Amino acid sequence: MTNVLPPLHQGHAPITLQELFREALYAFEEWDTELTEPIVTFEGKILPISAVFESMRDCTDIVPNVIVGAVTERLTKPWEGEGPLDQMTFSTAARVMGVLVRKRLFANGGAIAASASNSEPAELSGK
């Protein structure tokens, strides 16, 4: 599958990709207990939010403070940046969000497996 998202240019993301990252972050925030990963659209194409985060893994642009807050509030340890004034890059934010998506998918998949294994004995005992 070819990548439908615009490429980075020497580590910098076009504004459309930065805006899509923000949309993906908002979609993650609204993701409650659905079993499937949230999606966003870009130029008429439907993409899972993990594809957006993956496309920004090498982006060296600095994340706006509002996005930093949305990312760091999900961390289990306090954020300590290494840049001037503890600035976070999109690369760091994308990597964090990618891990969080995988953890949520794993947790949802684990819940499915647990409920399926719990329902099997009930089905068998009814026969």
Explain this structure:
With 127 residues, the protein is mainly α. The chain has one domain. Helix content is 52%, strand content 6%. It is built from four helices and two strands, in the order αββααα. It has a two-stranded antiparallel ribbon. A hairpin with a 2-residue loop joins strand 1 and strand 2. The protein is globular, with a radius of gyration of 18 Å. The termini are far apart. The C terminus is likely disordered.
In short:
The chain has 127 residues and is mainly α.
What is the radius of gyration computed over CA atoms, rounded to a whole number of angstroms? 18 Å
Q: What sequence of helices (H) and strands (E) makes up the elements? A: HEEHHH
Number of domains: 1
What does the overall shape look like? globular
Can you tell me the residue ranges where pLDDT is under 50 for at least 5 consecutive residues? 111-127
Main beta-sheet strand count, sense and barrel state: 2 strands, antiparallel
List the helices and strands and how they pair.
Elements: H1 15-29, E1 39-42, E2 45-48, H2 49-55, H3 65-72, H4 90-125
Antiparallel strand pairs: 1-2
Helix pairs in contact: 1-2, 1-4, 2-4
Essential attributes:
single chain; 127 residues; mainly alpha; two-stranded antiparallel sheet; 4 helices; 2 strands; 52% helix; globular; disordered C terminus
